[in-house]
Amino acid sequence: GQSLEQPSEVTAVEGAIVQINCTYQTSGFYGLSWYQQHDGGAPTFLSYNALDGLEETGRFSSFLSRSDSYGYLLLQELQMKDSASYFCAAEMDSSYKLIFGSGTRLLVRP
Amino acid sequence: DSGVTQTPKHLITATGQRVTLRCSPRSGDLSVYWYQQSLDQGLQFLIQYYNGEERAKGNILERFSAQQFPDLHSELNLSSLELGDSALYFCASSVRDPGGGYTFGSGTRLTVV
Fold it and tell me: From chain B, which residues contact A within 8 Å (Cβ)?
């Protein structure tokens, strides 16, 4: 089957660094994306990794290891506004459809 | 405004009824995706259309159907509604390039009573 596993909840302090992990089991794999969703809001695109390695976009970085079927999202200099749910999503075939993980709720404390 | 428009924003209806959710993709995007998100759950892929044709199908119930019209807007039809169909339904669109990501609409919150 196809599945993505990520922790259900993570808590961190404002200004700190937090890493949200994602492991996947898929029949095919093209790339891994990350999305942020605030309560009641729409998911918004953060990053995409097709190749192994680290992609950096401002305070957010995303990493992929195809051989380990593993990726993570790294959030630095945490701000209160970063409190949200974060979803990893795998692209499994050429249709570009995404299969989402169940999400990690990040709570940033003062 | 993300550029993806979903209507209506809220819908309350009774069990057994039928509703239609509408989505207009971002200008230039040919792919439209429908997702269901139940309370505190992840996003479940329902169906994808590309330039008017069905491209991929997920765990979409037989009571649900969708289509994409020549102007690229899409409609998701939900019939014989059950209490468990209450959820947020999101539409997303994308260009044919995964690196750019999906752009999601603000969703339609469906409540079945």
Answer: 2, 31, 33, 35, 41-45, 48, 50, 55-56, 58, 90, 92, 94, 96, 98-107
Are B43 and A50 in contact (CB < 8 Å)? Answer: no
Beta bridge partners of A5: A23
- How high is the pLDDT of residue B42? 86
Residues β-bridged to residue B108? B89
Report phi then psi at A80, rounded to 5.
-55, -35
Inter-chain contact A33–B100, Cβ cutoff 8 Å? no
A43 Rama class: left (phi>0) / alpha (psi -120 to 50) / beta: beta
In whole angstroms, how far apart are CA A7 and each of A21, A62, B4, B35? 7, 16, 30, 21
Q: Name which of A8, A39, A44, A45 to mutate to probe chain B: the one with the most chain B Cβ atoms within 10 A of its Cβ.
A: A45
Q: What is the pLDDT of residues B16-46, one digit of tens each?
A: 999 999 999 999 898 999 999 998 778 999 9
Across the interface, which of A41, A48, A95 has its CB nearest the CB of B101? Answer: A48
